[in-house]
Amino acid sequence: MFHKNIKLIIAGLLFITGIWQFTESNIGNGIFLILLTIIPIFLYFRNEYILLAFLKLRSQDFAGAKKWLDKIKNPESALIQKQQGYYNYLNGLMVSQTNLNQAEKFFKKAISLGLSMDQDLALAKLNLAGIAMSRRRKLEATSLLNEAKKLDKHNMLKDQIAMMKEQLKKI
């Protein structure tokens, strides 16, 4: 919606206005404005379009998620590094059903930019292992599966990892 620097400017203006309201003895307005400052700061670290795309992916609406991600113009300048990682991660998840070459590029870029949660990183590496396995790169797939297993601390991907290891034995 807004560029990342504009969000910080809005937060600064809200904070300054809140302080000004304190000096004018409007304590309630000042508190409200300072609390309102939290919203643009939150949206600086968590892009609103990426959050909406995650919500669409939860309901398996890939077209809706793609629509929200397409609203981000020039992600390199509009997003901070972690957001760029999640932008590529989400694009990789959506493209992985149709175009493995493009999905591999998205996942590798997401991993290099960084993802905040270990589960997301484990899922990206698991998808990369699946792509490597489909291309008969057994060594790469094995190492990616082992990394995904280490990152999966809550054993949410345990069944998928075990299934892929069984498929690797057949190659």
Would you kindly provide a written description of the structure presented here, covering whatever features stand out?
The chain crosses the membrane at residues 31-55. This is DUF2892 domain-containing protein. InterPro entries: TPR-like_helical_dom_sf. This protein is mainly alpha-helical. The chain has 2 domains: 1-45, no CATH class; 47-170, Serine Threonine Protein Phosphatase 5, Tetratricopeptide repeat, CATH 1.25.40. The protein contains 11 helices and no strands. It has helices at 4-23, 27-36, 38-45, 48-58, 62-70, 75-78, 81-95, 100-113, 118-134, 138-151, 158-170. The termini are far apart. The mean pLDDT is 91.
CATH superfamily of the largest domain: Tetratricopeptide repeat domain
Find the count of extended strands (DSSP E, 2+ residues).
0
The number of helical elements comes to 11
Q: What structural category do the secondary elements indicate?
A: mainly alpha
Separation, N- and C-terminal Cα atoms: 47 Å
The proportion of residues in beta strands is under 5%
CATH topology of the largest domain: Serine Threonine Protein Phosphatase 5, Tetratricopeptide repeat
Supply the CATH architecture of the largest domain: Alpha Horseshoe
Question: What's the rounded overall pLDDT mean?
Answer: 91
Keywords: Membrane, Transmembrane, Transmembrane helix
Protein name: DUF2892 domain-containing protein
InterPro entries: TPR-like_helical_dom_sf
